[in-house]
Design a protein that fits this description.
This protein is mostly helical. It has one domain: Hypothetical protein af1432 (Orthogonal Bundle), CATH 1.10.3210.10. It has 12 helices and no strands.
C-alpha cells in the first residue's frame, strides 16, 4: 500500500475507534464466547483451520482474519437460533461444527468470478476426508453457495440446513460494518492499487451497495443486530469521505 492510502487507512481506523461497539457483542456475549471456545477447541475445526491457513489467499480483504470472524460469529448466531429452536446440546454442537466449517471455507475461492459457487464445490472436495455425513457436507455446500447477496440461491430442503446458510450469510454481512473500514477495504486497495481519483469516483456507489445490505439479513438475530452494523459502517464511511476530500484534495 502506498503512503497516501496508508495515511487514509490511519484516519479510517481512528474514526472507527470513536464509534461504539455494535450491540451484538454486548447483548450476545455468552453465545459469542461459546462459539469462540468451540472454534479454539474442537479438533475438527482446528484441523480445518490449519488447512485454511495454508490454502486461503490472504491479500484480498477476505483472507484468514475475515474467515475467522465470520466463523466465530456464524457460530454465535447458531448458538442463539439453535437454542431458540430447541436444539439439545449434542445437536447444537454438531450444527456448530457444520456452520463453523462453512465459515472457514466460504471464501476459499474468493478471487474467482462466482466465487460462492466455486467455493462450495471446492469445499465438498476438501471435506471428503473429514468426519461429516453426506447431509452435513450438503449443508456446508449449500451455505457457501448461498452466502452472496443479490444472487440466485439454490433450494435448501431442511430447516436445519437453511439455518446454517442463514447464520453464515448474516455473519459475513456483519463485516460490512466497522470491519470494512478498519481492515477489508485497505487489503482490497493494496490488491487492486487504484488511483485516489478512481477510488473516490467509485466511493458513492460502494456506499450505496453497503446500504442495500441492511435489508437482507436472514436470521431473527441478524435482522435485529445487522442493520446497526451497516449503519455504523455507513457513518464511518461518510466521515472518512469528508476527511479525504478535505485532507487529500491535492491528490485528487
Amino acid at each position: 500500500m502506498d503512503q497516501i492510502y496508508s495515511r487514509i487507512r490511519d484516519y479510517a481506523r481512528q474514526i472507527v475507534a470513536h464509534f461504539p461497539i455494535p450491540d451484538f457483542y454486548l447483548d450476545q456475549s455468552p453465545a459469542h464466547e461459546y462459539a469462540s471456545t468451540f472454534f479454539e477447541t474442537d479438533p475438527v475445526i482446528k484441523k480445518l483451520k490449519y488447512f485454511v491457513t495454508e490454502h486461503l489467499e490472504d491479500d484480498f480483504g477476505h483472507g484468514l482474519q475475515h474467515a475467522i470472524k465470520v466463523t466465530v460469529e456464524a457460530g454465535a448466531l447458531m448458538a442463539i437460533e439453535g437454542k431458540a429452536d430447541g436444539y439439545d446440546k449434542g445437536f447444537l454442537d454438531d450444527r456448530m461444527r457444520v456452520v463453523q466449517c462453512a465459515g472457514l471455507l466460504h471464501d476459499i475461492k474468493r478471487k474467482k468470478k462466482d466465487h460462492s459457487k466455486y467455493g462450495a464445490a471446492h469445499a465438498r472436495k476438501v471435506l471428503e476426508n473429514y468426519p461429516f455425513s453426506v447431509e452435513e457436507v450438503d449443508d456446508i455446500y449449500r451455505a457457501i453457495h448461498n452466502h452472496e447477496a443479490f444472487t440466485r440461491n439454490i433450494t435448501i430442503d431442511t430447516p436445519e440446513g437453511a439455518l446454517v446458510a442463514d447464520c453464515l450469510y448474516d455473519a459475513d454481512k456483519f463485516r460490512w460494518g466497522p470491519d470494512n473500514f478498519a481492515y477489508t477495504l485497505w487489503d482490497m486497495i493494496s490488491y487492486y492499487n487504484p488511483s485516489l481519483t478512481e477510488f473516490m469516483e467509485r466511493y458513492p456507489k460502494g456506499m450505496q451497495g453497503i446500504a442495500k445490505i441492511k435489508s437482507t439479513f436472514r436470521t431473527p438475530t441478524g435482522k435485529k443486530y445487522g442493520p446497526q452494523f451497516i449503519d455504523i459502517g455507513l457513518a464511518i464511511g461518510e466521515e472518512l469521505y469528508e476527511v479525504i476530500k478535505a485532507e487529500f484534495s491535492d491528490y485528487l
